[in-house]
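dumping this here before i forget
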Amino acid sequence: MSARFNKILIANRGEIACRVIRTVRRLGIRSVAVYSDADGGAMHVDLADEALRIGPAAAADSYLNVHAIVDACLASGADAVHPGYGFLAENGEFAEACEQAGVNFIGPPVAAMGVMGSKDAALDLAASVGVPILPGYRGADQSDTALADAADDIGYPLLIKPVAGGGGKGMRTVESAPALQQALASSRREARSAFADERVLLEKFLLRPRHVELQIFADDHGNVVHLFDRDCSIQRRHQKIVEEAPAPGLTKKLREHMARTAVTLARAIDYRGAGTVEFLVDSAAPGDYFFMEMNTRLQVEHPVTELILGSDLVEWQIRIAQGEPLPVEQQRLRASGHAIEARIYAEDPDRDFLPATGTLTRFRMPAVDKRLRIDTGVREGDEVGIHYDPMIAKIIVHGDDRKDAVAGLRRALSECRIAGLPTNLSLLKRVAASPAFAKAEVDTAFVDSLGDRPAHMDEELGLAAACLFVLLEQAAASRRRGNNTEDPYSPWHTLAGWRLNAEAEDVVILHTHEREVRVPIRYEASGFRLTLPSGTIAASGKLVDPDRLIATIGNRRLPAEVVRDGSVLDVFIAGQHLHVRCEDRDQPGSREDSVSGLLVAPMPGRVISVPVERGASVEKGQALMVIEAMKMEHTIHAPTSGTVTAISYEEGDLVEEGVELLAITPSGDD
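structure:
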């Protein structure tokens, strides 16, 4: 007999916490949110029936604090806890602490987590039941010497992977022996910070494989099912950004082999609940596949499986944890249509995907319907800080077939309006628009294969819209000034370009990510004539509210949105987004010269390593300092050979974006 839960605590934050809370509410169960000092006003806190503070902003002191969350369960009277994904979702110590406190853990048994939560133990088990695995090192000896010897035996390139955790954290590709030690140190630090476990394993690196996974579910009644496959090949920094179900282009035989393998592994460890078995499929030999790992939790990409099944997998988790059997047998499961998910991150693709922070001055997603789902944990006006993963939303589309789903994804991405900080939306649009993606020619090197971001042919449309917006704002301000004086028709209240006995001329100076653009303006009776880098074009329009205009640029008439934050303008027009800064028209040239990005903090964060000292001689490219933010590391390298003359921060210090970290006197050898 099943025992129904009355109150569930969600031991997570962001979009997964919001997503679980909505399911819990639909099931008529009360929800309890937990929050750190950074999340007091977060969406998941407002959605829950009640919420408890668990500690300071740092994840180690809050969302990774086992005792604080168990105490919150007891204080709230929750009889179950849902871990979401990330943080403590695969932490056996946490699951065991919940059980000892009399709180039901909505997840697999502790023993199963112990085996599959450790990548080396999971690989050993897979090999023991005949599942193919890649050559690698999974030894207990974690010394630098042992790992270096193992790396020589495996051969390069190879992959360093933390034994615990997931999400690409701590993973490093190593091309040659000289790069091994620095990569090991970085991987260990990131793994220790994210998972409190710095152990690593080494694995042969396959060139351009596909990443395919199987969603599995098991109950306490001996039933195990797979919920079909997903392709998660499109990644950056070893972390997925686009996923789809079913995985396209697999043979029936390969699907059946991987599904059988996934179910076999689940049965071998007496599994219960949701899990994901991940494989690499060799592009050079498409029939060959290798077991990677099993994630003993729900995955970020679970919505694509939900959409092709028409099921709520969080509800499945809760019902199984209550002792109920699986709601459907394998032979009755059917996949309908095709689903694709794209993850939107606060990051800058033009700066090696550095995480970004800031305020969401505009956050408008496309309208949700039966074919489009938006999962998010943020709202317009929210702050994206340095402490947690920078994912801010997921767009999930469902189509009758893959072609239909791809078209839906392109449409949804074009309707997103996010301003206030950089995002990877431009990259996602490039992926969705790629002919290779349309033909499902994907592998784990797909993002690299896109090449450098092209100079977009419509960028000048955005520049023109930005200029037009500034000029229309200026005209409206002039009219307001005139209406407030005794002589509203005085030429001194007209546009700045007015000249006595001469043509009205002006200039708007814009700064994009890569360049300064000076746009000479000539005022005409019908509007303006803009001289853009590619030539001169007529422009006119009207403001329909403070941040929307109808623009006519050349022979194109179209709506545009412009979000102003001080001198910064985010322009949305024709499905494109342009981020520019408009130079103060009264103080031209007021923008400070940018400091070299090589010796300044590229993002706010914490200094975790300073491997050089003042006075040290360094070579070009040498590591000088390592900064951590949003669970990721960024290394500051020497831009030139020389001598370190100043070090402004030490290990443990917090730094703001743009502050000078070190100074080097060049040697003159470069």
